[in-house]
Amino acid sequence: SDPDLAERARAARAALGDSAFVLGHHYQRDEVIQFADVTGDSFKLAREAAARPAAEHVVFCGVHFMAESADILTAPDQKVVLPDLAAGCSMADMAAIDQVEEAWAVLSDAGVAERTVPVTYMNSSAAIKAFTGRHGGTVCTSSNAQVALRWAFDQVGGEDGDGKVLFMPDQHLGRNTAVLQLGLRPEDCVVYDPRRPGGGLAPHELEAARMVLWRGHCSVHGRFSARNVAEVRERVPGVTVLVHPECTHEVVTAADMVGSTEYIIRALDAAAPGSSWAIGTELNLVRRLARTHPELDVHYLDSTVCFCSTMNRIDLPHLVWTLESLVQGRTVNRVVVDADDAHWARVALDQMLALPG
Ligand code: 13P
Ligand code: SF4
């Protein structure tokens, strides 16, 4: 990366001192992550944002839904900025609030809405988190999806009852957690397709289901296949395959271990020197892990899959522009959630932060 730009970023960062706090998601570029005061997965970063009342500006190096959550969790006079407002998330965009309202009407017509708790993945808009808060549900991340689902089923009579969870927007995280961690059967999960009338589901299918999964997925993790797993096992004898739960059920079932980005990082920190690993998550993180663990043999699960293109929109030029603007007293690219959505989204986020563990 450009040494002049890095120098400008350093100077602007130093000039801002404690008035700014820079958060960086693990999928960010190296040229950006070097300036993060804290790095983390989306759960850790939400907690960190909530714990920094001193900073006037929270610079979020991540994607739009993360900046929205930070705005909701920080004090009213704190300003959250996203260095490039076009850094969205294709998965979060797969669930629009009017589609979710319509899905709830479908569940009501089928007579199951009163026995259904919505659970939304952090990767969703503030409007959908607010919907979740209004209907007594919770947010979850890939680190606490299991605890969140157990909590949600407890609200409607426990895992053995006939209560349901509407899980949005990542069908894979929902299915993987329900089947592999809660012991539900794959056939207990149905997929609600917002582009089809009634979600493409008959009322009796909704009645029989325990998990109603939104038809959404991550464009990065959704590209790994079971063939990738088989190929790496052939290529690298003794390899341990470790994947993110946004991967398909087929991939997660074929892998040896599954967990959030923080889990993946901790697993490699604890790995035996000389051991071989194939990692199924975003490439910036896998490359960083390979570099910081020269004692391990670290492989990318599929050499043709690349970065999260929206995470990568945050680059050094955008960061420099943002920091220098703040130094000049201009708050650029502020992300603000409207007050009513912020209130109800906070209810769902606080519910998540109150979950055990
Ligand atoms: P985590 O940060 O929760 O591991 O999620 C990965 C991701 O896709 C973030 O967009
Ligand atoms: Fe969204 Fe997937 Fe990118 Fe995460 S990695 S921001 S879920 S598209």
Keywords:
single chain; Rossmann fold; alpha/beta; iron; globular; Quinolinate synthase; 42% helix; 357 residues; binds 1,3-dihydroxyacetonephosphate; binds iron/sulfur cluster; metal ion binding; four-stranded parallel sheet; cytoplasm; 4Fe-4S
Number of helices: 15
**What is the SS-derived class?**
alpha/beta
Q: Tell me the helix content.
A: 40-55%
Which band does the percent of strand residues land in?
15-25%
SSE topology string: HEHEHEHEHEHEHEHEHEHEHEHEHEHH
Q: Rounded to an integer, what's the Rg over CA atoms?
A: 21 Å
How many strand segments? Answer: 13
C-alpha geometry: globular
Q: Which consecutive residue ranges, at least 5 long each, have pLDDT under 50?
A: none
What is the total domain count?
3
Enumerate the distinct ligands.
1,3-dihydroxyacetonephosphate, iron/sulfur cluster
Q: What composes the largest sheet?
A: 5 strands, parallel
Strand order of the largest sheet: 6-5-7-9-8
Mean pLDDT: 95
Question: CATH H level of the largest domain: which superfamily?
Answer: NadA-like
CA distance, first residue to last residue: 40 Å
What is the level 1 CATH name of the largest domain? Answer: Alpha Beta
**CATH fold call of the largest domain:** Rossmann fold
The CATH architecture of the largest domain would be 3-Layer(aba) Sandwich
Catalytic activity: iminosuccinate + dihydroxyacetone phosphate = quinolinate + phosphate + 2 H2O + H(+)
Cofactor: [4Fe-4S] cluster
Binding site for [4Fe-4S] cluster: 89, 218, 308
Pfam families: NadA
